[in-house]
Amino acid sequence: MKGSSVISKRGISLRKLNIIMLIIAVVTSVALIYAMNRTNNLYKETHTITQDLLQWRQDSFDLKLASDYLTEEIRCFAVTGDRTHLDNYFNEAKNVKRREKAIDRLKDFHGDSSVIKKLEMGMEESLNLMKIEYYSARLTIEGYGLNVDDFPQEIRNITLSEKDAALPPNDKKNAAVTILFDQDYLKAKQRINEDMNDCLDRLEHDVYVMQNEMSSKLSQQVFIEHVLTFLLIGIMMGIVLFTRILVFNPLRNCVELIRREEEIPLSGAYEVRFLAKNYNLMYYTTKETENKLNYDVNHDPLTGLFNRRGYDFFLNNVDMETSALLIIDLDHFKEVNDHYGHDVGDKVIKKAANILLASFRSQDYVCRLGGDEFAVIMIRSDSSMKDLVTRKVEMILRKLNDTSEDETIPAIACSVGCAFGRVGIKAQELFKRADNALYESKENGRGKVSFYTNTNKNKNQ
Asked: What is the C-alpha to C-alpha distance for residues 65 and 60, in angstroms, rounded to an integer?
């Protein structure tokens, strides 16, 4: 076939392209969902570690605070003899138990690590130190002459040495205070605090290590998530770009070429190329069919225009829904024949035919229906071209009235009726509308063009 070529088997297929892009998009989406789920889990773990760190710091604070609180209360009792301080001491030691609870929570967090075991050993040493504090409390009670039976069992079970028991009350008071401030007690207290601080520092280091690890994992996961997100965006943009390059642009070019009645080049996606090939086949078939029309059968021998047979062919084969139909009658043509003769009448017909042929586009169809009646099919025209049609008719009227080229041909005018196609309209209905518009032109003084409207649709019926 002239002007066409075979579609390459290696041409890009939209179906294959869509499948490939869909697979990539699905795989990327699944990976992105997995990455987002992984990020969410890491965030939860990081949040848990942060909450544990806050609780651990609170436990560490409680551990130190409780230990200092016990020391402070027992010393206040030894100095003042105020029982309230001793009650506070035993309430913390036996009921509140902040030290024990803090160690239990730290143990739940860190398990049976060496640090926790060292803390437990420090707790045992602190309990041993409490025996010295009980002894001081017993000396204080007897120094102030209080009833020992009114105090907890731990105090009642303490037995003073013979030397301390023989001391007078004031000396017992002094001895009670001295015990809690002497070097042995202070060194033991300091040793316990140092061991406890060392353990807590080690625990804090472990937590920071865990936080840094989780932070690093979370950063990597967020980076992966961003990469997958940008990849998915790139895929979507690629789909849009490929669709534009392989489908929309070729289709737009096809529309323009079809409007110009030209061959469509085979380019773009496989499906577009396939459509182009088949259009080209129909295009050249139509051209060959038009060329095979018998010129004498389909053309008027006087003017060379398409005759009634050609007009009927175009009316039934042209897309009249997107075309305009003009019906043209020469005004008072019978009088020309009667006054000048048929030879001059034939010259008027030829002049009118040449003017009409020169006034419209090469792709429009100009026909002589018979006698002084003409028709023009303007393809791809709509009501927005009313002004253009009016100007064309005015130019035709001026040329018909001009006798400067051949004074033997009298001036003449014409009346024109125009109707524009629309979706769903039949060719015969379009002809009736143009004929009604022509009737309106004749009724209103001739020598003009009228367009079909709802007001003139029934005047010639």
From this structure: 8
pLDDT of 241 higher than 50: yes
Residue 322: DSSP 8-state? G
The whole-angstrom separation of Cα 372 and Cα 334 is 9
Confidence (pTM)? 0.41
Q: What is the pLDDT of residues 299-323, one digit of tens each?
A: 999 999 999 999 999 988 888 999 9
Tell me, what's the pLDDT at 9?
Answer: 40
**Which residues are CB-neighbours of 422 under 8 A, at least 6 positions away?**
321
Strand residue runs (E) in 44-114? none
* Bridge partners for 324 per DSSP: 378, 420
Type of residue at 312: D
* DSSP H or E run through 259: helix 249-259
Q: For the beta carbon of residue 214, count every other beta carbon within 10 angstroms.
A: 18
Classify 1 as helix, strand or coil: coil
In whole angstroms, give the CA distance from residue 222 to residue 228.
10
Any idea what DSSP says for residue 92?
I
Say if residue 417's pLDDT is above 70: yes
Which three-class secondary structure string do you get for 52-89? HHHHHHHHHHHHHHHHHHHHHHHHHHHHHCCHHHHHHH
What span, in angstroms and rounded, lies between the C-alpha atoms of 343 and 305?
19
Structure tokens belonging to residue 77? 């009792």
- Count of CB atoms within 10 A of residue 221's CB? 18
Q: Of 105, 101, 92, 95, which is closest to residue 51 (Cα–Cα)? A: 105
- The active-site residue out of 346, 372, 402, 435 is 372
Report the distance separating Cα 260 and Cα 268, nearest Å: 20
Distance in angstroms (rounded) separating the CA atoms of residues 88 and 290:
116
Place of tokens 């079809």: 258
Active site (annotated) includes residue 331? no
- Secondary structure letter of residue 150 according to DSSP: G
The pLDDT tens digits of the residues spanning 247-293 come to 777 777 777 777 777 777 766 666 666 677 677 767 766 766 666 55
Q: CA-CA distance, 116 to 103, in Å (whole number)?
A: 8
Structure tokens at 370: 């018979």
Query: Which residue in 86, 65, 220 sits closest to 150, CA to CA?
Result: 86
| Amino acid occupying residue 354 | N
CB–CB of 92/70 below 8 Å? yes
Q: What is the end-to-end Cα distance of the chain in Å, rounded? A: 49
User: Do the Cβ atoms of 320 and 433 come closer than 8 Å?
Assistant: no
